[in-house]
Design brief:
With about 220 residues, this protein is of the alpha/beta class. The protein is about 35% helix and about 15% strand. Strands 1, 2, 3, 4, 5 and 6 form a six-stranded parallel sheet that branches. Helix 1 (about 15-30) runs parallel beside helix 7.
């Protein structure tokens, strides 16, 4: 199995960084091939612009989807985008490792989606959801939260985490054809002691050792 781990955290010594490292080690130990996109040290630019492309369809008005379709026809994606799309296309399993910031993705990861999930290459022309380009591939979110678990249960003061994650799991991953696995969620790692964090890392590695056998979840519809 080919795996892609996308990490979005600015501190390499963070718990998110440790989770990503544990994932790389566990997947490789299980015999899988692992590619990584560690967005902050890569200096990944999250801002979409004409820099996404090496060619131009309409020089007078920038509509990204039109330019993405054109780039797909002529092989005209910028090298940084082409590299990430190629990783995405090769992956049988994709993991996003990130902290939940303001009830969503960190800006650098959202920008990665904006630029890399290009129309014509990763979706479009009738290829969405059940007919998506990445049908047969699987994806899993590995998320850290600042608050306690009860805050993210139905009726909790932050609301149901499944609802919070739905725009990501349904609107990004499942939209492009990925089957979505149950998210890995670690609550309040900054408040946890070293022993608890170590236990979580071991559990994550153990989980990943057999993840190819895991069944997808129902992420619902809109």
């Amino acid at each position: 199995m080919n795996a892609l781990i996308v990490l979005a955290h600015p501190e390499p010594r963070s718990f998110n960084g440790a989770m990503a490292d544990a994932a790389v080690q566990a997947l490789r130990a299980a015999g899988h091939t692992v590619a990584t996109s560690d967005l902050y040290p890569m200096g990944f630019d999250p801002v979409s612009s004409r820099r996404n492309f090496t060619g131009v369809k309409d020089p007078d008005y920038l509509k990204l989807q039109i330019e993405e379709l054109h780039a797909n026809e002529i092989g005209g994606f910028a090298s940084d985008i082409e590299t990430e799309i190629t990783k995405l296309e090769a992956a049988d399993l994709m993991t996003w490792q990130f902290p939940l910031w303001w009830f969503g993705l960190p800006a650098i990861l959202k920008g990665w989606v904006d630029r890399v999930f290009a129309m014509g290459r990763t979706y479009g022309n009738g290829h969405i959801y059940e007919t998506g380009r990445f049908r047969g591939k699987r994806a899993v979110l590995s998320v850290t939260n600042g608050g306690p678990e009860p805050a993210y249960l139905p009726g909790g003061f932050n609301g149901d985490l499944n609802v919070i994650l739905k725009p990501i799991q349904r609107g990004m991953l499942n939209f492009t054809g990925f089957s979505v696995l149950a998210p890995q969620v670690n609550y309040g790692p900054a408040q946890a002691d070293a022993a608890a964090r170590a236990t979580w890392l071991v559990a994550w590695a153990k989980h990943l050792a057999t993840i190819e056998k895991e069944e997808p979840i129902d992420v619902g519809t809109y």
